[in-house]
Amino acid sequence: MMNPSTLIKPALQWLAVAAVAVTTAASAQAPGQPSAVIKVRCDRQCLIGHARNYIEALADRDFSRARLAPDVMFSENNVVMPVGNDGLWGTISGVHPGALEVADAQTGNAAWFGIVEEHGNPAYLALRIKVEDNLITEIETVVNRLPDMPKPFGNPATVSHDPTWNDILRPEERKPRERLIAVADGYFSTVELNDGQVFTHFTDDCGRLENGISTTASTGGGSASIAQGCEEQFKLGIYRINKRIRERRYPLVDEERGIVVASGFFDHANTFDRYKLTDGRELKTVLKWPNSITLLEAFKIRSGEIARIEAVFTYVPYFMPSPFARPNVDFQTR
């Protein structure tokens, strides 16, 4: 009769080999992937559903209806506060229909650009959420209210989002994630210390909507009264007052639609109150003291060229940081 140990030993050896094989397969990391553990991601529809659900809960002032993680971090104009207790959560009285919605299944982020009301007064709201394990872990909001310091504020009754934001690009019009971010970052580099040099590309019909008002069309105000079009304004150096564009972050990219959503700060040192455009005309600064604006800004990029821009921004204390930025990476001091 065969000794049982002679049967058990090979069996154990086979199990050990199988275990190693399983472990190796489990730990095999696909190229470009941050982890070998495959997680079920929330797709675009799922992420936009989370954003809509959050807005509905906000409108009803009932944060228990939003799918929030226990340690969710919430900020309003870069101030961290308890979600559901203060800020817009305590003042909202309505939400206008027809928001711009963006999602990025790779990073688990979604964005919502729209109009809300506080006791009947309109305000522009830009929202970014991050979803992990089907729960919202980050909520970043920018709320632009009036009255305030001079800034664009469009008529809420006439604001509409260009339908091309939802266009799915043809394969030949698309660019990879890294290139889309580079194009958007080139926009900020052009705005920073704007002296007429352009570091990105625009379509001939590029248009920009800031706080609900066109700042590039002839029917708009502000910069549009000096020059129309995105590139034309930058070549004139209209925005030279922007000393730095810092803490640039790009949490959302939709390659299929060519959309990048960015966050950051425009710092205005205001060390001068007059400056000349590249054509010799002189402009005066509106504000005479240091200030910053915080923003969420979306870019529609077609064939590597910026076609549409939409931003919600408001003033914050000079050099204010973001609670979501990585200090050693995103915080630029130049």
Summarize the structure.
The chain has 334 residues and is of the alpha+beta class. 21% of the residues lie in helices and 34% in strands.
Structure characterization notes:
This protein is an alpha+beta fold and 334 residues long. The protein is built from six helices and 15 strands. The strands form three sheets. Strands 1, 2, 3, 4, 5, 6 and 7 form a seven-stranded mixed sheet that branches. A six-stranded mixed sheet has the order 9-8-15-14-11-10. A hairpin with a 2-residue loop joins β14 and β15. The chain starts with a helix and ends with a helix. The N terminus is likely disordered.
Itemize the secondary structure elements and their pairings.
Layout: H1 4-27, H2 44-59, E1 68-76, E2 79-80, H3 88-91, E3 92-95, E4 100-104, E5 109-118, E6 121-132, E7 135-144, H4 177-191, E8 202-210, E9 213-214, H5 230-236, E10 244-254, E11 259-268, E12 274-276, E13 282-284, E14 291-302, E15 305-316, H6 327-330
Parallel strand pairs: 1-7, 8-15
Antiparallel strand pairs: 1-2, 3-5, 4-5, 5-6, 6-7, 8-9, 10-11, 11-14, 12-13, 14-15
Which structural category do the helix and sheet elements fall into?
alpha+beta
Helix content: 10-25%
Largest sheet properties: 7 strands, mixed
Cα end-to-end separation: 83 Å
Given the structure, what is the number of helices?
Answer: 6
Strand content: 25-35%
Mean pLDDT over all positions: 89
Number of strands: 15
Shape summary: globular
What is the helix/strand order?
HHEEHEEEEEHEEHEEEEEEH
Spatial extent as radius of gyration: 24 Å
pLDDT under 50 segments (min length 5)?
1-28
